[in-house]
Structures are given as C-alpha cells and as structure tokens.
Amino acid sequence: MFEETAAVTAEIEQLDSSAKQGANKPPRARAGRQPLPDHLPRIEHRHEPQFCQCDQCGHDLVKIGEDITEQLDVEPARFFVHRHIRPQYACKTCETITAEPVPPAVIDGGMAAPGLLTWVMTSKYLNHLPLYRLEQIAAREQVILSRSTLAEWVGRTGVALQPLADRLTWHLLQGNTLHADETPVAQLDPGKGKTRKAYSQGLSQQ
Fold first, then answer.
1. Stated pTM of the model
2. CA distance 129 to 77
3. Torsions phi, psi of 51, nearest 5?
4. What is residue 173's three-state secondary structure?
5. Within 10 A of 153 (CB to CB), how many other CB atoms are there?
6. How high is the pLDDT of residue 98?
7. Cα diameter, the chain
8. What is the pLDDT of residues 64-120, one digit of tens each?
9. Burial class (CB in 10 A: 0-12, 13-18, 19+), 117
10. How open is the CA angle 16-18-21, to the nearest 5 degrees?
11. Distances in Å between the alpha carbon of 171 and those of 31, 87, 164, 203, 205?
C-alpha cells in the first residue's frame, strides 16, 4: 500500500513540475499578416486632400511621402458574350462572295467559348462543384445552362483534351517506377437522396 501511495505521489509531483515548466515558457509569437502576392494586379485609388493649404497656418502643403494600405478583393464569375462579326464582300465583276472563316472552337457550332468550358471543367473537377450547382450559379445571372448541356460540354471537352492525357500517360510510363492510388469518393446523386461511391485514380512516377 505504501508503494502505491509513493508511486501516486511521484506521478503528481511530476505532473506539477511539467505544468510549472509550461507556465514559465514565453508566449508563442503570433504570426503576422502575410503580404499579398505580387502577381495580383493592383488597382490604385488615390485619395488626395481636399485642400492644399495647412489648416493650422494657411500655408501651402508640400508632399513628403505616401501611406499605402492594400485590401484583397475578388470579382465573381461574370458572364459575357463574344460577338463574332464577319463582313461579306462581293465582286461586282464575277459576283464572288468572300468572308473570313468561322474562328475555330473547342466544340464546333457550340455556343460555349473556351473560357466558359474552362470554368465548367475547373469548377467540377478542381473545386468539386456538381453540375446542378453550376446550373444554379448561371441561373442567378439569368443565364440558362441545363445540366444536360453542361454534361455534354464536359464530355466533349474531355474528348478535345484526350491528346494531352495520352501525352501525359506516355510521359508517366517513361519512368523507372510507376505509383498508383485509388481513393473512394462520395459522389452526389441528385434525385435519389443519397450518394454513391466513385473512385479517383492517381498515377505518379519516380
């Protein structure tokens, strides 16, 4: 019994000593605000004084420096329309009509510009936003994009990017060692009230 009491007493003394050591430690310095990235564009707003005379003595003021503060802002997704105008010219002699060809597009005959397709693919696969949410985002701007249309764009953009995927696969196979990983992901299944199991597969070389 005395041995148990001594062991408990020693443990209490050890905990008390650890607590005192922790209390004596200097407080951890708080991390300062990180500077805003240099690559972001800067929009300058200059705030000049309303009057250039000293309000104490009335003499002219002389600029001696500047005080600069920065605020981070964001511009939400903004929909706009590219209008391609191709004037038609005719020869009065032989009646030949000439016009510039239609600019190349990722989806021939489609209304989606490359920037819109990039937004859809990035939102779905990088930001993990389902297509019905993209449909809702567009609807708030009075732009009608159905889920079926978005799904078709995803598929056809994937076909357009297939040569790039093939090249990346070829590059991976050139390494001495190939690492593979398969991660289960819960995928939303609208209309069924539950999620289904999908898989994300990753490859890397060494």
1. 0.69
2. 14
3. -125, 145
4. coil
5. 22
6. 92
7. 121
8. 898 999 989 988 889 999 999 999 999 999 989 999 999 999 999 899 999 999 999
9. buried
10. 110
11. 41, 45, 11, 11, 9
Pairing between strand 178-189 and 194-205?
Answer: antiparallel
Residue spans per domain, the chain: 105-160, 163-189+196-206
Q: Are 164 and 149 in contact (CB under 8 A)?
A: no
Cβ(143)–Cβ(174) under 8 Å? Answer: no
For 6, phi and psi rounded to 5 degrees? -65, -40
Give the pLDDT confidence score for residue 127 in this predicted structure.
93
- Distance between CA 59 and CA 62 in Å, rounded? 10
Strand partners, 193: none
Residue with tokens 């078709």: 152
Q: How far apart are CA 188 and CA 27, in angstroms?
A: 46
In this structure, what token pair is assigned to residue 186? 């819960």
Give the pair of three-digit tokens for residue 108: 């021939």
Beta-bridged to residue 195, according to DSSP, are: 188
